[in-house]
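Worked problem 6 (solution included).
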Amino acid sequence: MPTPEPAKVPVRLRLLVFSVLCNFAGGLLSFAYFRTIDPAATSGVAPVRGSELGMFMAVFVLIFAVGRVASRRWMHPVNATLGAPPAGAAGDVVRRRALLVPAYIAATSWAGWAGAGLLWGGLLPVLTRSFDVGEGLRVAFGITFIGGSFVAVIIFLGAERIWRGELARFFPMGDLSAARAPRLRVRTRMLAVLLLVGLLPLAVLAMAALTRANALLGADVATAAAIIRNLIAVVVVIAAGGVLVGVGLATLVADSVAAPLRHLQRAMAKVRDGTLDVRCSVASNDEIGSVTEGFNGMVEGLRERERIRETFGKYVSPEVRDEILTGRAATAGSLREVTILFADLRDFTPWVESRPAAEVVADLNAYFGEMDAAIRAHGGLVLQFIGDEIEAVFGAPQPNPNHADAAVAAARAMCERLVVWNAAQRSAGRRELRHGIGIHTGTVIAGNIGSGERLSYALVGDAVNVASRIQSLNKVVGTEVLVSAATVAMLASTAGLEALPAAKVKGHAAEVSVFALR
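Solution. The predicted structure is:
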């Protein structure tokens, strides 16, 4: 039995756990610093007691509870949306807040740290009658602007990574730029992290060294040794903490840039290989998100172009379509030596008048499909279906030096396919069809012909008329396929061809030599 996949932890629970762990770890480190490493901890203050740890936990739970209550109302539209957001103003609010979720969680955390700074630096010392203005300001500043800033940035980057997958639900079309939300650009993000990791620890170390240097002035030997030991501890703690926090922040920032780019790179590789059913999820509203939106728009344009191309190919042949779309088709026309094939159904009018319209259309389409397949298989191009007639060309728009051989081979295949198709018709109790085919080789003008509103790829010249008349000559001589002498002269092999007496065709002064294809 296959091993079942583990259930995914809900995104909101992951955000909650991540936020709690970051805030708790940051708060515990701050508590440890101010109670064991800070100069005040070496100035006759009693060791850490269990009551202080209890107070720390109580303050943490209190601030966390206040933050949860305050954020519940703001997050309600986001949490209440189970699928795609509704249309209108309500949906706009949901999408905007969905984009701001990481920033809101980080801001709420920083506000909690500011509250903790006020409590530990001001309210609690006042209640315990140990308040000192300088010490209170130092503790409040350290908790709020140093510890709080680090934790808020880590929470923002981590929450953004966790929340990234949920944005697709709120923005199914990937249009993050349509939401009116502030953009945090990649450059701003990197500069903020660099300054936080690079400058803030240096500033703390500088202040620690300065205060301890002042404390050394006039200190006795024992006090001086304690100050030096304390300075060493401060340096070790800040250096180790700076490395750990720096690595963590660098990893989160790199992932916030590299992960979307990897997804975009994989999507681009699929498009390069010809796969257009690709949509890259937009995970941020920064420059990378804008590039991803642009990529999705580009792919949608390619899909639309392919749909037009495929639809276009149903009204004209793929060969003509490609000649036109690539600009290779000569709009002014060009002289081409080609072989032209005409095919016409026999007894078409009585059949149409005696059978239901739906049956006629179905059988006619099936017949045309078989004949078109035979012509295409030999490099030919069906120019048009005219009622019950087919006009095809070999050697245009794409040149083919063996166009005469290809046309004769296509005529043989058309007759063979008609035999098979008629057998199926006979088995189904439906009418069988007969046709006549005429083939002629000559020089024509080939190009896009028509009005300014509508063009079609067509052939103009006497050779076209002769091919059509040779097809009609089948009715007179009782044959199925007739080939002109001009075409026979270009064949690599004349096997299966029987010369017939020259005949006069309508609209042509000279007699035409023809051969029957047996």
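Discussion: Confidence is low (pLDDT under 50) at residues 1-7.
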